[in-house]
């Protein structure tokens, strides 16, 4: 491995190589490698994409295409806590716009962005399966918060300080 000026970390590149090794030269392992790489690094910056493309023997365009096709993958750093605001029909009717407006004001970010302190990433999703709790959001993929009102949202966020 040659040192580079791409912003990568030597230890991370070694760990990424260990992820790639079982799939080396096997383009069919792309999604598995991308998933493990994102779990390692937190997102998929260009240097990771290049290393994966070279390791699997696929084009950088193919790697980028898969990353941008699947919503699970991220090209930007994510916060320690991911807030997913439901925009399904029940939540939308009962106040998704108000929830998003309140979160945008409190966090000073828009959906798809991460706070400067890397504490939160905000996203709007189609449904979280909590229609009876509308409007609702889920934090870190497991903590559902429902029947949201603007005045209780700051207290919810404080639980993740």
From TrEMBL:
Record has Oxidoreductase as a keyword: yes
SUPFAM superfamilies to which the protein is assigned, alphabetical: Thioredoxin-like
GO molecular function, one term: metal ion binding
EC number: 1.12.1.3
Binding site for [2Fe-2S] cluster: 86, 91, 127, 131
Gene3D superfamilies assigned to the protein according to its UniProt record, in alphabetical order: Glutaredoxin (3.40.30.10), NADH-quinone oxidoreductase subunit E (1.10.10.1590)
Cofactor(s) it depends on: [2Fe-2S] cluster
UniProt KW keywords: 2Fe-2S, Iron, Iron-sulfur, Metal-binding, Oxidoreductase
Cofactor note: Binds 1 [2Fe-2S] cluster.
Family membership: Belongs to the complex I 24 kDa subunit family.
PANTHER family associated with the record: NADH-QUINONE OXIDOREDUCTASE, E SUBUNIT, POTENTIAL NAD-REDUCING HYDROGENASE SUBUNIT
The name this protein goes by in its record: NADP-reducing hydrogenase subunit HndA
Organism of origin: Pelotomaculum propionicicum
């Amino acid at each position: 491995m040659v040192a580079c000026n791409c912003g990568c970390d030597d230890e991370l590149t070694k760990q990424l190589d260990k992820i790639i090794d079982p799939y080396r030269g096997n383009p069919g392992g792309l999604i598995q490698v991308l998933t493990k790489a994102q779990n390692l690094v937190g997102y998929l910056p260009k240097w990771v994409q290049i290393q994966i493309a070279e390791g699997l023997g696929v084009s950088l365009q193919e790697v980028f295409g898969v990353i941008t096709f699947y919503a699970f993958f991220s090209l930007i750093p994510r916060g320690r806590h991911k807030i997913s605001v439901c925009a399904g029909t029940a939540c939308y009717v009962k106040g998704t716009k108000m929830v998003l407006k309140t979160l945008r004001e409190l966090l000073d970010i828009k959906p798809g962005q991460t706070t400067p302190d890397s504490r939160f990433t905000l996203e709007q999703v189609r449904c979280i399966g909590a229609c009876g709790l509308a409007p609702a959001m889920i934090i870190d993929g497991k903590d559902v918060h429902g029947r949201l009102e603007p005045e209780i949202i700051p207290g919810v966020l404080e639980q993740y300080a």
